[in-house]
Amino acid sequence: MSKINLIIDGQSIEVEKGITIMDAAKKINVNIPTLCHHEDLCVAGNCRVCVVEVKNHERLEASCAVPAEDGMEILTNTAKVRNARKDIVSLLVSEHNTQCTTCYRNTNCELQDLAAEYNVDGDRYLSVLKPNIKVDKSSWAIEKDDSKCVRCQRCVRTCAELQHVNALTVSHKGDEMKISTFADLPFNEVVCTNCGQCVNRCPTGALTERRYFDDVWEAIGDPDKHVVMNTAPSVRVALGEMFGNEVGTRVTGKMVTAMRKMGADSVLDTDFAADLTIIEEGNELLTRLKGALVDGDTSIKLPMITSCSPGWVKFIEHMFPNYLDHLSTCKSPQQMFGAMTKTYYAEKKGVDPKDIVSVAVMPCAAKKYEANRPEMNSSGYRDIDAGLTTREFGLMIKQAGLDFNNLEDSEFDSIMGQSTGAGIIFGATGGVMEAALRTAYAVVTGRSVPFENLNITAVRGTEGIRAASIKIEDTLPEWSFLEGVDLNVAVAHGLKNARVIMDEVAAGTSTYHFIEVMGCPGGCIGGGGQPIPTNAEIRAKRTKAIYEEDMSKPIRMSHENPEITQIYEEFLEKPLGHKSHDLLHTSYRKRNRY
Amino acid sequence: MANNNKLKRADIIFSTYSVDPYDVLDMAMKKGKTDVINELIESGLRGRGGAGFPTGLKWKFMAQENNEEKYIICNADEGEPGTFKDRKLLVDVPRKVISGMAIAGWATNSKKGIIYLRAEYNNLIPALEKEIEVFNKYASKFDLDFSVNIYSGAGAYVCGEETALIESMEGKRGEPRNKPPFPIQSGYLGKPTLVNNVETFAAASMVCRYGAKKYESYGTSDQHGSKLFSLSGDSPKEGVHELELGMKISDFVEEYGDGDTKAVQIGGVAGFCIPRKEFDQTIIGEGNTTGGATMIFNSTRSMYNVIHNYLDFFAEESCGQCTPCRVGTQQLLKGVEAVKAGNKPESYLDDLVKLSKTMKLTSKCGLGQSVTNSFSSIVKNFREEMIY
Amino acid sequence: MTKIEQLVNDLTGKYGKERKSLMPILQGIVKEKRYVDNTDMVHIARALDISAADVYGVASFYSFIENNEMGKYVIRICKSITCEMKGKHKILKALEEELRIKLGETTHNKRFTLLETNCLGLCDVGPAMLINEEPYTKLTPEKVHEILVDYRNEVK
Ligand SMILES: Cc1cc2nc3c(=O)[nH]c(=O)nc-3n(C[C@H](O)[C@H](O)[C@H](O)COP(=O)(O)O)c2cc1C
Ligand code: SF4
Ligand code: SF4
Ligand code: SF4
Ligand code: SF4
Ligand code: FES
Ligand code: FES
């Protein structure tokens, strides 16, 4: 890479050719304000907040979009620059429905920060806010309020570049330009997966998750209700960020204490259900392999693909409706948890399931939608009554007046509170695969997977699609049909990569037996419901925390979880059994691609 | 032979001389490619689409691009209110335009030519297609591998901006791109793309016909050749006029005004509005745009109505992607309305002028950048008309 | 196959199924039926395998691609500066009276839709308007009447 020299605010620096002025400035700790820029997305250069002066250029340049060039002299802090930025922020405010006090993004809003930084005067310009903007609350998961939109197009780029869904577009032009769904139809009628990635990247309150915390508070306050809360693995490695902790801080114990103090009747772990998923899904895989490889049953579809990411499930329903047979029939851990809460748990605790309110705290927006899917009521009740995001949960902790960082640690309640390292790693891309392999290999061979510390590094990482192959040798007698088989697996995260994998499946060129797909980049740790901001660096730190949590667990294979053994003995009888079928498995539906 | 700033009619582009433009193409092809490009550089021809970039230089850069697939685009999106010279060229002398495109294609080793024609001109398509058929015959006769196709726009002024035009041709919204890269490096479908105005191609063909020397001799020392002016408004002689560059506005007004001229808009709505007291200026001097739209206003016209009409146009035709332009145009429009209605003090006009300067400094493309031209000049010169 | 599916099929046959064919296809439909409704857009999206939202985003950008139902003849009168100076308001009023509709509306018999547009490049011969693709210049209220009579009688 060739190097170039330039001067920024009087300071000479050498940088690689090709980087933007903004990135060059970052290297010498010169901060330039941004709005449309996001590390995960391609350059847009449309907000113009990041303008700087370049010597001998007639106009100011957008530093996020213009490459640094050899010999450039750049000034980032002149009256001209400051005035221009202030004007631009004032303009944004003038088309904005500034209602910070009642806005969900209050205190975590990039427009608000900019307006504060430049101390903009609200009366400087006339309001050009469009009248009669209605908030779209049609979706179970996403709310869209155009009156708070700064038209940075981050959401559109997210949905297109990261997710390849293109549910959002920029529509019209000039003063009518806005962010739209197809034909401005309500969100629940369009091809949206509810992944919430757009929400996570929206700098303002224009796109938010639909909130359910008031319902949860109400249930907690109702003496007749028995509130069961469960938290997904990736919540515990991200929640701390909402209380000023360094990214990647694990706050499992404090999180449990907080839920208890908030008044939950029982504080349980979704990871338990992740372990349960592994048992069911692992057995489903082995059954499919036997059916396809030994019995030659052509109705059995391979590769089998995971189904624990509801955004991904809706994606395949829309985009590849003819390949739903490839999806594992297992419900996601959240829904398994819910079904078990209202049956097994209720029975064990002697609580009437009608009085149970099951609350899932998730890194995800799509889980809200999943909880509301009509078929998710196999227990006779809604499996899950409310799905909260990490962000909502953080807010509830604040509302409860808890000094989160000084809470003591405590343990999950029992039953359904115990989990293994395998359940934990569900939170990162590759985790379900790794957990499944740990168990499946052990079941088939009676030995642990042949990797140091059980860490199957081949399926870890940030590559969009990762493939691995594991040779199965010296099987136990009942699995002898797998002797010598190379089990081909692949992992994809982010729906863009899911599409690539599915195009292969659809073309009949896929050589995999088992594929893990996570709807969000990085897996759940990068979920749409996680703290804002989320970007590659933050995802990496959360992932690291997930694997640390795994290593800290005494038991690291799902089938060794004693509570799992117990639930099969006491209730489910056997994997893929009759009860499992009723409570833990589900079916899918074809949807429109366009 | 510098022009003495008196108005001079030129008769180049619309002249019905005996040489068929396709023979000009043949003549050009008999010279070397570099010779033709050098001649164009020498002629001092500047782009006629508005930005005024030296055409020869642009062709030279294009010729240097090493790529099998290169595009020559004729920008016929002419959407600037007050501009209609490209239409006249396409109606009266399409052959000169196409021969100019073909010379560009040949000189820069580009095989594909596309005319981006605004939707409003769709009725010209049949005649143009016939002309293209004629060209195709010549091309095969000369063994020239160059095709010309028409691509129809769909009603968006901003698509005249070259990168927006390219986006539009790629089936997208006509939102201008970040530059660099420039179209010459990465344009249509990521390939090297040369975009020139209709008139630029016709003029380039004329340079080949007459030679740089002769062409250069028209106009002033820094503005060479002839230029088409689209004239409309309060004038008995509305229409397209071919003039030598470098005349004074006063000469122009004398010739074309109705005797009661109060102001002249030069360079279309993106250009400047010049009041009577400044008619001493030379047309196409510093800062004036080269698009050639001139509108004459007489004393019966309300300059408030004029700027209101312009701003309405900009607010509607901005692509809307960048903040200063999308919101700025709305603010200027609402702002002059508020001052007019007495809801904002007169001094608010100064705030608006400042805002328009910010738009110039920070907007992504020429649309937002140029609003200040007409806005500041009208508000400055006709301030009393802006107030209730 | 519905009529519109057939049309989209013909257009993709002619222009191809790449993204760059989107505009010619939209224009092809406009030429045929004057506007592109939501169902049409879904068909286009399917044919090009792009999202319907993308088709909507592009279509809504361009003022000659209308989403609402249009009459058989779409009248677009220029509202830009010189036409305005030359009496566009009178012409608009004449059109409104003649057609008994307001700007933006379509006649009951779905024959005429009346819209405004920006400069048509006919400023020297304004006031000007387009009826579908056909330009009309130097308009006067009387001329408007004559033109409309011709259209009503399908002389045109
Ligand atoms: C908003 C906007 C509209 C434009 N419209 C036109 C146009 O209609 N025709 C044109 O030739 N150039 C137009 N241009 C200029 C083009 O971007 C480009 O500079 C020109 O086509 C280059 O050709 P030239 O070098 O021959 O002038 C426009 C620029 C802007 C910013
Ligand atoms: S989006 Fe931001 S600026 Fe707008 S109301 Fe909400 S917090 Fe305030
Ligand atoms: S939730 Fe996901 S699929 Fe839906 S619009 Fe947002 S990014 Fe696109
Ligand atoms: S919805 Fe949010 S992300 Fe999308 S353009 Fe508006 S402010 Fe930006
Ligand atoms: S200046 Fe206006 S037209 Fe140009 S990119 Fe910005 S919003 Fe679009
Ligand atoms: S951050 Fe650079 S233009 Fe928006
Ligand atoms: S102003 Fe009406 S055609 Fe140009």
Gist of the model:
With 594 residues, chain A is α/β, with parallel strands linked by helices.
Produce the secondary structure layout:
The complex is a heterotrimer of chains A (594), B (388) and C (156).
Chain A: E1 3-8, E2 11-16, H1 21-27, E3 51-54, E4 61-62, E5 73-75, H2 79-94, H3 110-117, E6 142-144, H4 154-162, E7 169-171, E8 178-180, H5 197-201, E9 207-209, H6 213-221, E10 226-231, H7 252-262, E11 266-269, H8 270-294, E12 304-305, H9 310-319, H10 333-349, E13 356-362, H11 366-371, E14 386-389, H12 390-399, H13 421-424, H14 431-445, E15 465-471, E16 486-493, H15 495-507, E17 514-518, H16 536-552, H17 562-572, H18 578-584
Parallel strand pairs in A: 1-5, 10-11, 10-13, 12-17, 13-14, 16-17
Antiparallel strand pairs in A: 1-2, 3-4, 3-5, 6-9, 7-8, 15-16
Chain B: H1 21-30, H2 33-43, H3 55-64, E1 71-76, H4 85-92, H5 94-107, E2 112-117, H6 125-142, E3 147-152, H7 162-169, E4 193-197, H8 198-210, H9 212-216, E5 226-233, E6 239-244, H10 249-256, E7 261-266, E8 272-275, E9 293-298, H11 303-317, H12 323-340, H13 348-362, H14 366-381, H15 383-386
Parallel strand pairs in B: 1-2, 1-4, 2-3, 5-9
Antiparallel strand pairs in B: 5-6, 7-8, 7-9
Chain C: H1 3-15, H2 22-33, H3 38-48, H4 52-61, E1 73-78, H5 81-85, H6 88-99, E2 112-117, E3 129-131, E4 134-136, H7 141-152
Parallel strand pairs in C: 1-2
Antiparallel strand pairs in C: 1-3, 3-4
Helix pairs in contact in C: 1-2, 1-3, 2-3, 3-4, 6-7
The complex binds flavin mononucleotide, iron/sulfur cluster (4 copies) and FE2/S2 (inorganic) cluster (2 copies).
What gross morphology of chain C would you assign? Answer: elongated
SSE string of chain C, helix = H, strand = E? HHHHEHHEEEH
* Tally of distinct domains of chain C: 2
By CATH reckoning, the class of the largest domain in chain C would read Alpha Beta
Low-confidence spans of chain A: pLDDT under 50, at least 5 residues? none
Instruction: Please give the oligomerization state of what you see.
Output: heterotrimer
Total helices of chain A: the number is: 18
Cα separation of the termini of chain C: 32 Å
CATH architecture of the largest domain in chain C: 3-Layer(aba) Sandwich
Shape of chain A: globular
Residue runs with pLDDT of under 50 for 5 or more positions of chain C: none
Instruction: Say what the CATH topology of the domain at 92-209 in chain A is.
Output: Alpha-Beta Plaits
Indicate the proportion of strand residues of chain C: 5-15%
